[in-house]
Amino acid sequence: MLTLGKYGAWLNPVDDDVARTEYAVEAEFLGYGTVWLGLGLRDESDLRVVERVLDATSHVVVATAIINMWTNDPVALATSYCRLQDRHPDRFLLGTGVGHPESITGYSSPYRRMESFLEALDAGGVPSDRRVLAALGPRALRLAADRAAGSHPYLAVPAHTRTARRLLGPGALLAPEQTVVLDTDRASARARGRAFLSDPYLRLSNYVNNLLRHGYDETDVVDDGSDRLIDDLVLHGNADTIAAGVDAHLAAGADHVAIQVLPTAGQGPMPGLRALANRLIP
């Protein structure tokens, strides 16, 4: 299994690939162990965006978050994985998942889709310990333990991390994403968090159902989300406050936390990632 370090930098697909490559170079310099590349629904079967980042960096692990199993071809993806493994041995972690029924035409039998996709990756030479699943529910988490290195849950709270660790067992990788806002003004931080979460995330059944399983009720997930939910899903405050919230995932059983900084207008994520690196990374 690859060594990801305790903390990673999760880079949003909203940023263009040139900017994200520059962010990745700095994240490596700051000491983040892994750079996660958010990809959304893009067809990235050729993994060129990953190759660009690997070429520009020297040792940081580069992970996809995630390669969508409906919009990417697993045979082509396996070929691309082998190319990157040859060029940059043991630096790439393939994050894959089925996404959400609301965003995919023809979405059906997601568990079977995961199984068939993983079978194709097996046949193409992608080792199970070089891939993770974006698993939230119990069945998907067990599959992540059996057929991959583990799980990279998105939009999860420490209560989910605790449950995921129990279902994955002690040996599997658990690397949740945590969104943060470096802002000590509660009202403005909440407003930014709510704008980020309310559409699309609180309109996606996979995420809503997962939140309802882990301490929230219908009053938290309706409309644009309760203050409690927004505060938990998008940590805000100064670097010390946010660091404590990030470390709550580690205390709950995570091996690694991928930190996504919501930037202020006109800025990228790096000011926030710098501030957190000063607090989190020796």
TrEMBL record:
Residues 21-122 form the Luciferase-like domain. This is LLM class F420-dependent oxidoreductase. SUPFAM superfamilies: Bacterial luciferase-like. InterPro entries: Lucif-like_OxRdatse_MSMEG_4141, Luciferase-like_dom, Luciferase-like_sf. It comes from Pseudonocardia eucalypti. It comes from the Bacteria. NCBIfam families: F420_MSMEG_4141.
